[in-house]
Design brief:
mainly alpha; TPR-like_helical_dom_sf; plasmid
Length: 262
């Protein structure tokens, strides 16, 4: 099933959707939690990317019911996160305790850490949905803390996702220069591994930064010179970044009136 997730991240949505739909038809009794995470979580995201929001929300709701029935907090946390990403809000009414989130994020490589990181990511994205400067500042601080916690656990993939979330927070708060500095090494990592959708799905303010960086590639001050033109073209030309899930993100992502680049 990791292969299915890989096909999505490389932008191969047709193949990924077919594989995940087939795994979904197997039902929850097929076993492995990672399979359920892919079937319900990644599957619902692809539906949302394609604009199939009713199907996406149905799959999320079904997944949460499965998570509750089988006592799988990591699955519930992932599906809540997907619901928030697509603008549907939390799917489950089971709310994580803030103290448990931060304690869990400091764990090493285990399920508690992954669950806590998903919960913290969700809380940060909910803050970004507000229109208050205080909420944006809190989101930036919490995202920076998440990057630090994950990086100390030597989990590069999780650190990459947390860094992209931090970039989104900085950009939403109008801190564009800081956002570009944080994004550059993360974007380079995505380019090395051809993780196209990881950048596209990270948040609605990531792509404008990449567009600006592309325009500045000839400048000595550009931090994005190590990213190939082919990769940038693949990311920025993808037709789904202005539809589906990102369109929902953009509709909810109106910056505050006093946002200014720092």
């Amino acid at each position: 099933m990791p292969t299915n997730c890989g096909t999505r991240e490389r932008g191969e949505l047709d193949v990924a959707e077919q594989l995940l739909d087939e795994s979904h038809r197997l039902g929850a009794e097929c076993g492995l939690v990672d399979l359920l995470l892919a079937s319900y979580g990644t599957g619902s995201r692809i539906k949302a990317i394609r604009g199939k929001f009713s199907e996406a929300k149905e799959r999320l709701a079904e997944g949460v019911r499965t998570g509750v029935r089988l006592s799988l907090p990591r699955l519930i946390a992932r599906l809540n996160n997907e619901g928030i990403r697509m603008g549907a809000g939390r799917i489950s009414e089971i709310l994580p305790a803030p103290t448990r989130i931060m304690a869990g994020c400091r764990q090493a490589r285990n399920i508690i850490a992954v669950t806590a990181e998903l919960d913290e990511d969700s809380e940060i994205r909910l803050l970004l949905a507000e229109t208050n400067r205080t909420h944006f500042d809190e989101a930036c601080n919490r995202a920076a803390g998440l990057v630090q916690a994950v990086s100390s656990a030597d989990r590069p993939r999780a650190a990459l996702e947390a860094t992209l979330l931090h970039t989104q927070c900085l950009a939403r708060g109008g801190r564009t220069n800081e956002a570009m500095e944080v994004l550059a090494p993360a974007a380079e990592a995505c380019a090395r591994h051809n993780l196209v959708r990881l950048l596209i799905d990270a948040g609605p303010d990531i792509l404008p930064i990449l567009t600006a960086a592309r325009s500045a590639r000839g400048m000595k001050t550009s931090s994005f010179t190590d990213i190939s033109e082919d990769f940038l073209t693949q990311v920025l030309a993808d037709p789904t970044h202005m539809s589906g899930i990102t369109q929902v993100q953009r509709a909810a992502a109106q910056p505050p009136e006093d946002s200014t680049a720092r």
